[in-house]
Amino acid sequence: MNAPGHGERVCAREGCGQTFTPKRSDAKYHSGACRAADNRTHRHTNNRPVRVAAVTAIRPPGPLTWDPPSEPRRLHLTTEECPHCAGPLVATPVGTMRGCPKCGHRVPPAGVRDAYDPSEVSAGRTVRSQDDRDDEGLALAERASELLAGIRHALADDKLHHASRGRLEWYEAEIRTATRASQPGRVEHLAGKLGGESIRRQHFWQGQPPAAIEAPAWDEVPADDTGEVCEAEIVYEAEIVCDGEQLAIEAPRRAVSDFAAALAARDAAMEPNQQGRGLCHVIWPPPPGAPPGTPRRHCLGQARHSISGGAICTACHDALQRPLGG
Amino acid sequence: MTTLPAASLERVLLRAGSIWHTGQGGAPHMVIYGATGSGKGTLNKEFMARLCTAERVLIVEPKRQADPIYQGADGDPWQWGRPVREICPQFGYRGEPGGGPHGMWYRLTGSPDRADTARRFGQALEIVANEGMVCLFLDDVKETCKALGLAQHVESIMSLGRSAGICAVLSTTETSYVAGRSQGAMTWVGFTGGSIPAAKSGAELLGWRGRERQDQCGTLDRYDWIYSDGEPGSAGPVLTRTPAPAVAYEPDLARRPAFA
Q: Could you tell me the pTM of the whole model?
């Protein structure tokens, strides 16, 4: 039965062209075969509605502003003093340069100067130059070679006890390692230990130690022996310690390392020199024979060495290292 | 949809200049991130011309060949720093004078000999770390950190430089392997070359998350910059633009040294 109001239609499949009277209002094909054939041609369709991309301009409620507080920086006064006229220095806006508005000099900031100021040596914040590093390296090499020469001398002794030989060889290796690693503290520590080391010699009756494990005879080879060559364990004879036959290595010692004691022995003192930066800190007593009331005087040499308590010049450094009366 | 306010470069540099200093409360380090050709060198020159005219400046330039971006105008080849192979202690105050308006700008140049370049750069960064008080421009900082193996030097300067008076500007095309990138109080993100991971890295540097923000970084043009800082009074990120041609510092300022 035909639905009322549905007249004849042409089949929607392309190339069919047949007319039919639909039974439903949305019928498009005259047969199921035409519907299936037409659907096969639409391989990539889906039932989702086609979306239209649209760009919509959103107007912000007001004009966009970007206005954070930004006071421009200008030249500003610092607490540093001009070394030429003692006037206050001004710093550039970022602050990496200093200048004196009074005398017009450009002055390195304190941080830049202090890195190379010898008077700051005691604070441990001074840059070490390549020369300083070279001097330290040479002093360490010299010290290590003194110790190694002493050890080699002791090792050359044929009668050296094997235990002492082992200890000395350990010292030798450790000193070499510490020298290569530029560790003067470690070398001094080893020198201190080596100075207290007692070296024993072997007696004539000790001779060459016999092997504790005798090689078995050819017909005594055990059944499980695979023929592998093993290093036989060698047990030496029991130690015979003779108190009267001890050797001792005398570790060479440095002239003076306790500057505080050397200063006290000379009635000298240490205090930063107010007459200028980078000057020696040592205050010497009046020389012998000086009239009474002669004041103590500050050394005016340039500080080159850092010791505990301050920085001193080379002349004072040498003077303090010389033995008293020498 | 998110929008960024726009501001002129002068306005943004005024803001950057007010917080970029070595004094108390200063924010000493900047990070500039952008692809090759994004205008990092031009932005560096803007900083130098507008913020560093009277400062001691060291540009560390690890390229094997001289970068034409720092080539000065005719008659003033050291306009953007005197090219040097090494710097001496207290450079600017001792030794040879530098370039720039007050003879305090130096440009440490790389060479094809990378081992030699690494040694020289290491020594220079050591001097900078010891002395402080310098505006340090690290161009192509990834090359300095990774290829030259100086990441520890850079990291140390970025970490300890504030108290020593070092204001560092790190320019990089990538964020990986760049030591101290998180120390940048001010961040500039520019053209990322259309790469999605690069745009993502740029958004991360700005502290942003999400695809929309990444797309915003990815659609920047050459010489466009998103500037952001986290200092007090910040108004948030802003879009700005550097002029494509190189800028020059004021000629009258160049002729009038502040200090003899």
A: 0.61
